[in-house]
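Retro notes
What went well: the complex prediction finally ran end to end.
Inputs used:
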Amino acid sequence: EAQVTQNPRYLITVTGKKLTVTCSQNMNHEYMSWYRQDPGLGLRQIYYSMNVEVTDKGDVPEGYKVSRKEKRNFPLILESPSPNQTSLYFCASSPGLADPYEQYFGPGTRLTVT
Amino acid sequence: EDKVVQSPLSLVVHEGDTVTLNCSYEVTNFRSLLWYKQEKKAPTFLFMLTSSGIEKKSGRLSSILDKKELFSILNITATQTGDSAVYLCALTPTGNQFYFGTGTSLTVIP
């Protein structure tokens, strides 16, 4: 089944404790992206990647890192999480520049930082 | 700064009603406008609009773009309870950066 998977689905952590949210897609998509969704603010793009080893900042990259060492994986790293990073996070992928728009979203990761 | 504004914020209708959701935008460069449906989980893609005046249709849903007036509408006819969801509008100026509106929450009452 074609899908985007995220792990963990739920995470409660404390301020400053490094964490990684994994994202994997099995559709051989070139483009991948991370979003956060907050009430009243909608979906905001954190980082995106056009291909392996190619990443770029979205609208709200501060406090986040990403890497794209393999085509299928695009982990989101919070080196020192803070409470304002409490949010619902979505990973998405799409085939590439020729058809970048129909993004397939993962199920979401709900992160709480205390 | 690129911006997407959706209205209304929320809407409650009865089954069978027709609804119109609005999306207006400001953008330095325009490539496409997209509509998504979100039902308590991940957003799912509905439409992509690139050219003005060309209506996209899928069953009871349709959407159209006006690039001169910088807005798009999403119409849902003969609404059903399964249409209850948050509808998101997104703009991409480049094809790889995306700006989403805050969404319109639609509730359809039986």
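What we learned: Residues 42 and 81 of chain B are 19 Å apart (CA to CA).
What to try next: split runs per interface for comparison.
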